[in-house]
User: Which sequence fits this backbone?
């Protein structure tokens, strides 16, 4: 019997640790980890007609509509070799996008990292990123040696304006409204793998590996 290949997406709210878990999983399974942001930027760099429209949306700060996002993802994903499996992060973000993806690239596992809003807020508020070199500090667990100064490049660390508790809660509300319905969508397809993300990175990874193994996915 040939090995069951993971054709997966990973989703969850900001602060759920999906980036970290996605990277760990991609390393373990030797899977390409495909971030939607990179694909989006590729399309813009190429200057295709879709890329040009996307650029207008980015400039205006408006959310790109599903049709545009789908078009770009279809174009970019087609160019990749995904026959040995893949892990998508950041796409789909809506049920309409998930429906589209299912037609062009069927998913057999949707990993949902679930955390409470309070935990997401707590985590996001304890994080700060250097605006210069992009190093991320956790003010609780791994603060910079000198308060307010990046240990790597000496840059001044300050919280981004959109990292206030109010702004974070607004983004979480949007997430619940737009993206969380994916859980129901993939459950109905028999492809949902839900996991509680409010534990240590190592523990969540371990539980995830066990759940995947139960479904027949092994590295
Ligand atoms: Zn820095």
Assistant:
């Amino acid at each position: 019997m040939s090995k069951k290949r993971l054709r997966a997406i990973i989703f969850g709210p900001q602060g759920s640790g999906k980036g970290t878990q996605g990277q760990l999983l991609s390393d373990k399974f030797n899977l390409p980890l495909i971030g939607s942001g990179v694909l989006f930027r590729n399309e813009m760099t190429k200057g295709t007609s879709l890329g040009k429209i996307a650029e207008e949306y980015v400039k205006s700060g408006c959310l790109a509509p599903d049709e545009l996002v789908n078009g770009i993802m279809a174009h970019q994903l087609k160019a990749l070799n995904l026959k040995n499996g893949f892990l998508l992060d950041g796409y789909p973000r809506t049920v309409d996008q998930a429906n589209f993806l299912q037609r062009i690239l069927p998913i057999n596992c949707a990993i949902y990292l679930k955390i409470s809003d309070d935990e997401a807020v707590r985590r996001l508020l304890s994080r700060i990123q250097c605006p210069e070199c992009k190093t991320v500090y956790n003010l609780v667990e791994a603060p910079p040696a000198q308060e307010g100064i990046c240990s790597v490049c000496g840059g001044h660390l300050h919280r981004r304006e959109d990292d206030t508790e109010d702004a974070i809660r607004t983004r979480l509300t949007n997430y619940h409204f737009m993206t969380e319905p994916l859980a129901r969508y993939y459950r109905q397809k028999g492809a949902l793998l839900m996991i509680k993300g409010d534990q240590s990175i190592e523990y969540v990874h371990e539980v995830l590996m066990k759940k995947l193994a139960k479904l027949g996915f092994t590295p």
Summary: The radius of gyration is 18 Å. Residues 7-32+82-213 form a domain with the Rossmann fold fold (CATH 3.40.50.300). The pocket of zinc ion is lined by residues 130, 132-133, 135, 150, 152-153, 155 (CB under 6 Å).
